[in-house]
Write a structure and sequence with these properties.
Blueprint lengths: L2 H5 L5 E5 L5 H9 L4 E5 L3 H11 L5 E4 L2 E2 L6 E7 L6 E2 L13 E10 L1 H7 L7 E4 L5 H7 L2 H4 L4 E6 L5 H10 L4 E6 L3 E6 L2
Parallel strand pairs: 1-2, 1-8, 2-3, 4-7, 8-9
Antiparallel strand pairs: 5-6, 5-7, 9-11, 10-11
Length: 194
């Protein structure tokens, strides 16, 4: 993330897709005190925590939806025992027995990035973070140019290594994001313009 660039923007707009419990919301509020944050999280338990922490915060807009690339307005969602990893049933990576095993399945509302941009009247996205438990390929292969052109900087957690090249082709070749790859707890893409 290019924090020096983001700090030069009067009111940076952050799109936090897969907010979980709000760690990145907290980071952005501290690092960029004038930013406007739009955070999407479909997991009921996580969203309740976000609502409690940020529900009255004028700097943060909470979006109780799963972000997808295309398709239906609702999808089946898997919530795990641990709450550490949950996701859309059709793309969720099944982990070995243990804390990441499904506890509950329920229907969640879905939206594309284009719909979020339209519904919340977002004219630009200075930084977009995607941590969507294996939905990133669906989003990256279906995003349209008029939506991608609003994003200035992008970070994607890639949950399935076999999707790496397809995401690279979709976002970094098609839309001309500069690319840096790094490895931490998993594979991630970071890209910026210019």
């Amino acid at each position: 993330m290019n924090l020096p660039r983001l700090r030069l923007i009067e009111e940076p707009v952050i799109l936090d897709l897969g907010a979980h419990l709000g760690d990145m919301i907290e980071f952005f509020k501290e690092a960029l005190p004038n930013c406007k944050i739009f955070s999407a999280e479909p997991d009921k338990r996580s969203f309740a925590t976000l609502q409690e922490k940020y529900g009255d915060d004028p700097q943060v807009t909470l979006i109780p939806k799963a972000i997808v690339g295309s398709g239906s307005a609702t999808r089946e969602f898997i919530q795990t025992r641990s709450g550490l990893s949950s996701g859309i049933k059709e793309t969720y990576i099944q982990y070995p027995a243990g804390k990441h095993q499904p506890q509950d399945t329920y229907t969640v509302e879905c939206a594309t990035i284009a719909k979020v941009v339209r519904d919340y009247k977002i004219s630009r996205i200075d930084y977009c973070k995607m941590n969507l438990e294996n939905v990133e390929l669906d989003i990256c292969t279906n995003i349209k140019a008029n939506t991608a052109s609003r994003i200035q900087e992008l970070s994607i957690s890639v949950h399935e290594p076999k999707n790496f090249h397809a995401i690279e082709d979709s976002m970094f070749h098609r839309f001309k994001f500069r690319k840096v790859m790094y490895y931490a707890s998993g594979s991630r893409f970071w890209g910026g313009r210019g």
